[in-house]
Amino acid sequence: MAVFSQLLDQLAQYDNQTCLIENDQSLSYSQLLKDAQSWASLFVKEGIQPGTVISLEGDLSSTYLEAFIGAIQLGCIVLPIGDSVLSDKRQDFLKASQVEVRCQISQAAEPKCAVTDVRADHELLQWLRNQKAAGLILCTSGTSGKPKAVLHSAERFFSKFLKSRKSFRTLAFFAFDHMAGMDAVWYGLASGSTLVLAPERSPEGIAQAVQKHKVEVLPTSPTFLNLFLLSGVLQQFDLSSLKIITYGSEPMPEPLLKKLNASVPDVKLIQKFGMSELGSPPSKSKGPESLWIKIASESLKIKAVEGILWIHSPHTMLGYLNAKSPIDAEGWLNTGDRVEVDGEYVRFLGRDSDLINVGGEKVDPLEIESVIAQADNIQSVIVKAERHALMGNIVVADICLEQPEDAMQLRHRLQWYCRERLASYQIPVKFTVVERLKMTDRFKQERS
What is the pLDDT of residues 270-298, one digit of tens each? Predict the structure, then answer.
């Protein structure tokens, strides 16, 4: 646990600086570490030993963060699960991770820890125990199948935070059980930043938190940024403190990026790349309106194999607990992301698994969305597959309109618009008008 101890020593140097603002209450770094030590002692009293696989269930709060630090300090293998995770998926997470003790963490009640009847015997878990090392498990969202349980060595995972960076007042937007949320919190803490917890993740709730606490950095997703623009909060709240908006977890539509640049010209927009299996390394955009990024890490190597991105990093996961590993014998991770490469820069085209097979033709939904988004009267769009007896799949589109329009007229107009710009098999067969596009609990567009 040398690396995590070094990281906590780094945090201790910030002493009485504010590390967290929650419900208008401030928590200092010194108090955070003191309370975390109390949590480690509490876990020992509950009979939890180093190497135990435990779930910490609850939303990010000062109490939750202290419990998490205490569990890692003790040497546990920790699975964070947020309150937004539905019951069926929660059971999938627990089973895949071989959780031995479940802990409910809440500020409103005493912690509840319950032993399960599971014996965690996966070889990777045993390897961590033999190393007397703590671990971290993050479960993928499972939108294209069963979620995968991603196991990280705490030593490898937390080593990337030892290099402190510039401190900012940062809004903790993503859930802590999501890699983007985990990285944002720890990059912030490692640099002595102040993390602001918003009471609700709605455009109004986020804008109000930015205004009230003078937030400088907002990490979020393209889907949420689209809602942010459509909601009108830019006109309702004073967001002048914002210096940086980082976006990731899904590809950014080019039309949306242009709207953002026009709407918040004084804010630096930075595209982030990350995944549960790797984390989110530092990145640099080619320009404010460019979707090309350079992954700026000396320890990380990239290559494209048949249009798919492969990454070699010292911070890669140990492996999956319930699936075949995508890491080859030389340590290269197959990300499953389709990319274009231009020297040091990469442009992400979407997940390979998102491609739609239409009668043997591979259709990219992002390409179609980019075309439709530029048509008149289109507020937002999502393209997805619908099963078809003869073709295997057909392409369909859900759209939100700026103004009401006759359904038949809209369908004919968009089909003619698409015919001039897309191949016949790419044109959506159905256009369905919806009030709002569906969003997952991780603030991505839902294509199911």
Answer: 888 888 999 888 888 888 788 888 886 77
Burial 275-303 (b: 16+ CB within 10 A, else e): bbbbbbbbbebbeeeebbbbbebeebebe
pLDDT tens digits, one per residue of 46-80: 999 999 999 999 999 999 999 999 999 999 999 99
Mean pLDDT along residues 358-376: 87
Q: Are 212 and 218 in contact (CB under 8 A)?
A: no
Contact 38, 70 (CB under 8 A): yes
CA distance 134 to 122: 15
Selecting from 3.40.50.2000, 3.30.43.10, 3.40.50.1860, 3.30.300.30, what CATH number does the domain 355-433 have?
3.30.300.30
- For the chain, the domains span 2-158, 355-433
Query: What percent of the chain has a predicted confidence (pLDDT) above 70?
Result: 96
**Dihedral sign computed on CA atoms, order 241, 17, 220, 187:** positive
Q: What's this model's pTM, rounded to 2 decimal places? A: 0.86
The single residue listed with the structure tokens 């997940």 is: 351
The residue among 206 and 165 whose pLDDT is bigger is 206
**Structural contact between residues 81 and 56, judged by C-beta atoms closer than 8 angstroms:** yes
Q: Is the separation of the CB atoms in 33 and 9 below 8 Å?
A: no
For residues 326 and 342, the answer to whether their CB atoms sit within 8 Å is no
**3-state SS of 298-338?**
CCCEEEEECCEEEEECCCCCCEECCCCCCECCCCCEEEEEE
pLDDT of the residue at 125: 97
Give the CATH class of 2-158: alpha beta
